[in-house]
Amino acid sequence: MQDGLRFSWNYWPNTKIGATRVAIPVGCLYTPLKEMEDKTRVEYSPVECKACKSILNPYCQVDFKFKTWLCPICLTKNNFPPHYASNITETSLPFELMAEKTTLEYVLPNTQQTQPDGSATRPIFILVVDTACSDAELVELKDSLQQSINFIPEEAMIGLITYGKMVQVHELGFSECPKCFVFRGDKEMTAPQVQQQLGL
Fold first, then answer.
1. pLDDT average, residue stretch 93-115
2. According to the model, what pLDDT value does residue 67 have?
3. pTM of the entire predicted model
4. How many other CB atoms are there within 10 angstroms of residue 43's CB atom?
5. pLDDT of residue 68
6. Which of 31, 111, 152, 160 could pair with 170 as two cysteines, CB 3.0-4.6 Å apart?
7. Containing H/E element for 157?
């Protein structure tokens, strides 16, 4: 877990045919705000895939002749922005494409958003947990979640959704009276129905 990521499968399909042949869905456990000694900070916006909005990274295939890159998530071919295209070569790579820079921290200019009352917007973390596992795995999962929560800033808002046979949306704001919204796993619901049940 060098980058705070653990995948359910050690194979990432790199073609559309390969993606259709994968028997087990690709899943990922991400540890937010994992402390890393050699994490690189860059002060500019990331380059995004035009189709799925994933970020340019060392696992992308790059065509240096035509100044394009192939998204490993959705397999869409993207053009580099002009300031990248004019400088990128096989020997002169941006940080995003360096093999040893698999995790970057982007420091974005003027990204502090405010609410209508003028106060700063707080970061939000939604934890989505699959509870359909053995008791031993649940104990390990609980330990991992507690470790992850320790890295979340105190001012952040945290949401918890657990799912197994039922989907449960937990309201964490009141320790005296815990509240949980339960959705049946075998019943289709529209977004407005979910909003109505959650009181949004």
1. 78
2. 93
3. 0.51
4. 9
5. 95
6. 160
7. strand 157-163
